[in-house]
Amino acid sequence: MPDKVKIAQINHVTTMVKDTARAMEFYNNLLGIKQIQSQVDNPAITWLQLDNGVMVHLIETAEAPAKPGNIHHAFQVDNLEETQEILENNGFEILRGGIRYDGQAYFFIEDPDGNSVEFCTTSGYAPAPPRP
Fold this sequence. Notes:
The structure is a single chain. By secondary structure, the chain is of the alpha/beta class. It is built from 2 helices and 8 strands; from the N terminus they run E-H-E-E-E-E-H-E-E-E. It has one domain (12-120): 2,3-Dihydroxybiphenyl 1,2-Dioxygenase, domain 1 (Roll). Strand 7 (105-110) and strand 8 (116-120) form a beta hairpin. The protein starts with 11 loop residues before the first strand and ends in a 12-residue tail after the last strand.
């Protein structure tokens, strides 16, 4: 019997939103994540899915965001500069960004409900230099 769980991939992430229609403007219309049929009997949960199968579940609640600035999800993109320009042109402020030790570039914004969302390039997975 194996002594470790073998994770195949991320199945889904959840995001708390106050207004599903407003959230759909961002996640569906701007980011292009497609809505799929819900697999649960709960009208407060909207199911979205990326082309690679990873899902985003929007959960409508008056308490959104659950833990602002503490929990986030990251979307890998092919062109980070173009993504930043599109988001800024749609009124989103880049809160912070940079380049990680492995060469991965990234930046963070807040979605319309104040949830932290990261956009990044492919991870370099190169050996990291010693931290200062």
